[in-house]
């Protein structure tokens, strides 16, 4: 495959519906990194290594030196928002990065002005922006987004575009008839079907144009049969849902470890307080429900209580998110974990994570943009399960349970890169280092 991967030549446009805390932290960060003012910490594509061949070969190149990724200097940013603030203004309001850092890249940030959004208040009732497209039908809105993409590509002289949803979490909806086939979906666009959300309109526009689409929120968005099918037809990589940061990141690091040692878990109570706009949107029960579903599935899939009833059959899992303005983007989470060990003796683990949500999310957006662009150039299309590493609720083929264990997710990601580049896959078997033993067998 490596001989057929197209080179990362020319500029890559990264478009984000939503230019809020996460997107502006990403953009300001990349501009600062380009000026050598900071390091891309947390980004696997920029700082991670990958082992190649046998352990005795000692080959550990940087991932960005191993696979042909777009260079940060070749990236151009753009996006849509329901508020008209440019990226500098939006970043100042989000208060994630220090004003000094933002002033160092002020000119670059001020130059990025949001395009008018596709927005429907019935999906996010806690937002009231008016920088919004008007059209008679959802089909016209989708066409307008496609025009935006084409115009952006031309104006910025990009050879390729990717889209990552960094917009707010929409209210909870389930897959229904209009989402089933491309035909029913396109008819729904013409008939303004209420079950087609704004994020689906962006996703449809991107996928129709063959632009990779990654979904950073827990909304259904491209996780519906119609858009999965369309992605296959148009040769487009897609993925989601919900960036894996903060508390869920901790959960998918810790739970596989406890399960690996066959320790039991009776209860896992997770509470969060956060005060940014994301927290305000999630304060509405309809939007919280979407997030809750995404956060709850994690433990069950890792611990598999059905095949481990003695250890996890009684597990009580609860997740709470509370809007608390004084904390801003500096989310605080508490986890109380009731575990039990040998002969059923109980123990407790407490985690108090004082994190910065957008600081954890920004490098994920960068990696997803770069890897989905790589996937497209490598001829991969449809759901990119190897990018599950980045998601709270990974999108998978129908009938397949998602893999939540972060270590298995990393092995999958790295083996996919090795496979792309024609390197041996690594199974971690290791018996071949003990030749005599193997030959004796
Ligand atoms: N920060 C994290 O750690 C994290 C983790 C996982 C998921 N997420 C998700 O990422 C998304 C972005 O998070 P954030 O902290 O930047 O939130 P934010 O509220 O700061 O930014 C979201 C932006 O999207 C805009 N928006 C909403 N609907 C839109 C639409 N239809 N079109 C265009 N713009 C729209 C809003 O006006 C807002 O500016 C949220 O859905 C959040 O749940 C964030």
From TrEMBL:
Pfam families reported in the protein's UniProt record: Inos-1-P_synth (PF01658), NAD_binding_5 (PF07994)
Myo-inositol-1-phosphate synthase GAPDH-like domain sequence ranges: 246-358
InterPro entries: Myo-inos-1-P_Synthase, Myo-inos-1-P_Synthase_GAPDH, NAD(P)-bd_dom_sf
Similarity comment: Belongs to the myo-inositol 1-phosphate synthase family.
Protein name as annotated: Inositol-3-phosphate synthase
The species this protein was found in: Pontibacter ruber
């Amino acid at each position: 495959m490596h001989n057929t991967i197209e080179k990362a030549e020319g500029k890559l446009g990264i478009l984000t519906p939503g230019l809020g805390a996460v997107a502006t932290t990403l953009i300001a960060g990349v501009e600062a990194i380009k000026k050598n003012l900071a390091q891309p910490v947390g980004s696997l594509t920029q700082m991670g290594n990958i082992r190649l061949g046998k352990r005795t070969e000692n080959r550990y190149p940087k991932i960005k030196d191993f696979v042909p990724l777009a260079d940060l200097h070749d990236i151009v940013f753009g996006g849509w928002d329901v508020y008209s603030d440019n990226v500098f203004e939006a970043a100042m309001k989000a208060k994630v990065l220090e004003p000094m850092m933002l002033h160092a890249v002020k000119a670059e940030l001020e130059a990025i002005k949001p395009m008018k959004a596709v927005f429907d208040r019935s999906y996010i009732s806690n937002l009231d922006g008016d920088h919004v497209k008007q059209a008679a039908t959802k089909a016209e809105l989708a066409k307008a987004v496609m025009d935006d993409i084409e115009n952006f590509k031309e104006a910025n002289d990009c050879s390729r575009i990717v889209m990552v949803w960094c917009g707010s979490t929409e209210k909870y909806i389930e897959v229904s008839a209009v989402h089933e086939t491309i035909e029913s979906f396109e008819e729904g666009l013409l008939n303004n079907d209420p079950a087609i959300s704004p994020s689906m309109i962006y996703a449809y526009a991107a996928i129709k144009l063959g632009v990779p689409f990654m979904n950073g929120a827990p909304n259904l968005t491209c996780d519906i049969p119609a858009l999965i099918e369309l992605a296959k037809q148009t040769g487009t990589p897609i993925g989601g849902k919900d960036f894996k940061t903060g508390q869920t990141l901790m959960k998918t690091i810790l739970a596989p470890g406890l399960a690996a040692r066959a320790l039991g878990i009776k209860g896992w109570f997770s509470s969060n307080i956060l005060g940014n706009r994301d927290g305000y949107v999630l304060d509405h029960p309809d939007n919280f429900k979407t997030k809750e579903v995404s956060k709850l599935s994690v433990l069950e899939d890792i611990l598999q209580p059905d095949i481990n009833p003695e250890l996890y059959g009684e597990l009580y899992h609860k997740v709470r998110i509370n809007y608390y303005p004084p904390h801003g983007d500096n989310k605080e989470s508490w986890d109380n974990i009731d575990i039990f060990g040998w002969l059923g003796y109980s123990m407790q683990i407490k985690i108090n994570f004082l994190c910065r949500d957008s600081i954890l999310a920004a490098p994920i957006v960068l990696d997803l943009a770069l890897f989905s662009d790589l996937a497209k150039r490598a001829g991969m299309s449809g759901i990119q399960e190897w990018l599950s590493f980045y998601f709270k609720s990974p999108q998978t083929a129908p009938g397949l349970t998602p893999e939540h264990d972060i270590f298995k997710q990393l092995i999958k990601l790295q083996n996919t890169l090795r496979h792309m580049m024609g390197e041996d896959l690594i199974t971690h078997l290791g018996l071949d280092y003990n030749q005599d033993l193997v030959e004796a067998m």
